[in-house]
Design brief:
By secondary structure, the protein is mostly beta strands. It is built from 5 helices and 24 strands. 7% of the residues lie in helices and 40% in strands. 44% of the residues are buried. The chain is globular and about 55 Å long. The strands form 6 sheets. Strands 1, 4, 5, 6, 8 and 10 form a 6-stranded mixed beta sheet that branches. It has 2 domains: 172 residues, Cupredoxins -  blue copper proteins (Immunoglobulin-like, Sandwich), CATH 2.60.40.420; 142 residues, Sandwich (Immunoglobulin-like).
Length: 342
């Protein structure tokens, strides 16, 4: 394997513990977090795990990201042959803090060329985002200077094909001193679209995976619009919070084509961060627009005397898209008869 190395000094390691990570440090060395997403894979069953783990204090964070093909479930009973970072769609959730040194190694284990593009990185694209041939890899590093919810994706032409196949993941950067309020629960939601032809029935009566429909993508006729890679998954597998919780949601819109008009039915966002500066927070917002390739941070409080115990659907308020799968439910507390159609 040929490695195009930009920067990669030796560092200490991290071990996986029950799906989470524990930082270790070599003697006399600066503390470093290392994650291999070939070994630490995001939980996707029964639903993609939308919870955001707290940022680790280690000032240096290294990530090994494999590119690989995978069979995905994009809606109940609908499978799809996708291209992925780390074997899931979205790929891994990366969480860092402003000022962290981020080191990235990307390995192409697929049979075709790919690349990677970090929207959060200030780095020459010709060095970090070059084409990665099969069995090749690239390494680079950058300092996280900008807070927010960022998209990472494959930038190999045609970019729309690589996006509709699933090559994206969220990159969350906390401000140096936090967002200004303490959140009780944090979640990450990536909105995206699939353009899939229904699978045919095979010789033994088994439904084959759906296949990409390039013409549908070019005419923006999505078959599914989803949060975190699968249509409607958070209707049955609700995001659970407690009464009184302040909930922070990082929304990234991977597109490739549609906007996200993020809204929670029955709640108001008391804060929306359109960029990474906490002092720019908008207040008392009903719905906020996230463009394709963009991200924003949303907060609301499910107070007992306000939006208390109950069910709260979250959607893109472009309802033609919500009806194709971009809808889920936040469950607050343990409401009786916890069921609704929305």
């Amino acid at each position: 394997m040929r490695i195009n190395k930009v920067f990669l000094p030796a560092i200490a390691g991290v071990v996986a513990v029950g799906g989470f990570l524990a930082v270790t440090a070599a003697r006399h060395a600066e503390r470093v977090m290392r994650v291999d997403f070939d070994k630490v894979v995001r939980v996707t069953s029964p639903a993609y795990d939308a919870r955001l783990a707290p940022v680790v204090d280690a000032p240096i964070k290294e990530f090994r990201i494999p590119i690989k093909d995978a069979t995905l479930e994009i809606a109940k009973g609908v499978t799809y042959q996708g291209w992925t970072f780390g074997g899931t769609v979205p790929g891994p959730v990366i969480h860092v803090r402003v000022g962290d040194l981020v080191r990235v190694t990307v390995i192409n284990n697929s049979p075709m060329p790919h690349s990677i593009d970090f929207h959060a990185a200030r780095i020459p694209a010709n060095k970090a985002y070059r084409m990665i041939m099969p069995k090749d890899s690239v390494q680079f590093e950058f300092v996280a200077k900008d807070a927010g919810a960022f998209m990472v994706h494959c930038g190999t032409p045609p970019v729309t094909m690589h996006l509709m196949q699933g090559m994206y993941f969220p990159f969350i950067v906390d401000p140096k001193n936090g967002w200004g309020t303490r959140a009780d629960k944090e979640f990450v939601l990536v909105q995206s679209e699939f353009y899939a032809k229904p699978g045919e029935t095979g010789k033994v009566g088994v439904l084959l995976p759906a296949t990409p429909d390039w013409n549908a993508e070019q005419t923006k006729n999505a078959s599914q619009v989803v949060f975190n890679g699968r249509a409607f998954q958070y209707k049955e597998n609700t995001l659970k919070v407690d009464v009184g919780d302040r909930v922070r949601i990082f929304v990234v819109n991977a597109g490739p084509n549609f906007e996200s008009d993020f809204h929670i039915v029955g709640a108001i966002f008391d804060r929306v961060y359109p960029d990474g500066n906490p002092s720019h927070a908008l207040e008392d917002v009903q719905t906020y627009h996230v463009p394709a390739g963009g991200g924003a941070v949303f907060e609301t409080v499910f107070a007992k005397d306000g939006s208390g115990e109950g069910l709260y659907p979250f959607v893109t308020h472009s309802f033609a898209d919500a009806e194709k799968g971009a809808v889920g439910i936040i469950q607050v507390g343990e409401p009786k008869n916890a069921h609704m159609d929305h």
